[in-house]
C-alpha cells in the first residue's frame, strides 16, 4: 500500500482511494490505462479537447486510456472534501482476460473518452462492496483485487457492446501530425515521454521530429508558447496571474513570474496593472 498524506491517497494494487482538501484543487493528468471510478463526495471537473465532464457525488465514469485532461476538484455543497474510488484496468490484465475468455480482436475505438455509467445499479453495487476496504486496505489482497477487477470487467461487458470495443482495443497511438498535436496540447504539463507516446513516437524520435518542425527544442518551445498564451490571457482576457499560470501549464507561480519577466520585461502583475490603467 502506498499513501500520500497531502491528499490522502491510498493505492492498493490497481485500486485507488483519493480524498482531497476542502479547497478547490487543480491538476493535470495523463492516464495510460482505462479508469473506472465513482465520486463519493464533492465534485471533479474534467476538461479535455472533447469538452467538460462533471462528476458529482454518486457519478460513475469510465475513462479510456491515453487521455490528456485537466482536473478541477471542488468541495461539495456542505463543504465535504472531494473523494473518489478508482479502478485502473491495465493492458496486461485486459490481454490476459481476452485470452482466457476468447475475446476477439477489436477494431480501433472511436467513441467518447469519458462515459457516464451513473444509472448502472450493478456498478453502484460493485463500488459499494469496495467501501469497507477504505478503512481496511490490507484486506484487499492481490487475489481479492484480481477477483474484483474481473467482476468490474464482466459488469462493463454486460453494459453494452461498446465497452468490449473500448476495453479490448489494444492498438497503440499511431504516428500523427506533430505540429498540429502540439499546438492543441501545449498547455498540458506532462513529461515529454508522455507527449511522445501520445504522438506515436519514441522519445528520441519525438525530439528529432520536433526539432525539424519547430527549429528548437521541445522544452524551449513549450515555455515560449505557454508564456505567449499567458500574455494573451492577461492582456486581452483580463485574467489574473494566479489563474493563468496553471491554465497554461506552469507548475508554480514564482517560476512563471520569473520566466514571464525574462521574456516580456515585466512581471505578470505589472502587465495586469498596465492593462487596468489603459482600460480606464
TrEMBL record:
PROSITE patterns for the chain: HTH_ARAC_FAMILY_2 (PS01124)
One GO MF term: sequence-specific DNA binding
Keywords linked to the UniProt accession: DNA-binding, Transcription, Transcription regulation
Domain HTH araC/xylS-type: 176-274
InterPro entries associated with the record: AraC_XylS_family_regulators (IPR050204), ExsA-like_N (IPR054015), Homeodomain-like_sf (IPR009057), HTH-like (IPR037923), HTH_AraC (IPR018060)
The name this protein goes by in its record: Helix-turn-helix transcriptional regulator
